[in-house]
Amino acid sequence: MFPEQTMKKRINALFWVLCLTVAVQIAMSYVMQVFVALRQIGLPISDYVMSFIAPQFLYPMMNLLLVFVAAWVMRMPMRPLLRMSAPRRSFLPWLGLFLGVATAGNLLVSLLLAFLEEYGVTVPDVFSQYNPQTPGQAVAFFVVVAVLPAISEEVLFRAMTAGGLKEYHPWAAVWLSAFGFGFIHANLQQIPFAILLGLVLGLVYVKTDNLLYPILLHFVNNAWACALTFLGIFVDPELALSVRMWGSLLFLIFGIVSFVWLLCKKGFSLKEYPRAVSGVQALRSALSSLGMWVFFALYLLLTVLMMALPV
Fold this sequence. Notes:
By secondary structure, this protein is mainly α. It is 76% helix and 0% strand.
């Protein structure tokens, strides 16, 4: 089989796996019925746990199981793709670039939402209703928002998706994993933001061959968002706003410096990595992949449906 055909086959297989995440999300509503039954027989399960903590905990667990089952079915060895080693000094510029891109992405999304609201399109905030109100809820919130997604999503998108495609064309692996990562969030606040972050995370993974790096970067981003949320709820909203503003300024400066340093060191080049196919062949393989188009269509539909829900 020609490399272009094998790449198309791999893209199809990987994106059909990602399509199954829709089924996992739908399955959560049925799993919640188990918690309803448990509460009816007297177990102390709060509404907050049932509506937010339990699904946010079970969803990444089920996705991790899905990854390893799919890898076994596709006969794709995961051990080399899960390689991790301790961070070195080379991690610092990637951290700076990531923080700068995350800050710029947040600003761009804020402008996009303001533009839509100007024309009468209101995008519901799907997160504020789940903000923690007690220290116990805050701990659980941190685990399911900062810790678990950093592990499960990086295994799914960086190790499995980018790792499964980088032997064919490294930039195609970065771009396809980034778009998959963006669309799986299925809400307009996060899709463009997650695509930007996915590009950096994918590039870091391909360049370093170290899954720990994108896991740490993903965790830092989510942990920072949690810290600002907790500061605004439990301490002082104005202080949280001030910390966000000064933090954004520092991150942007750090990001610009890191970008220039990486540019001078040719940190964005992937020329030294092997390519089984050309860029045109990689693009043709992606565009002819039914699995990829079904995945994007499903999550675009989910995004539209979420926007149509009453605020």
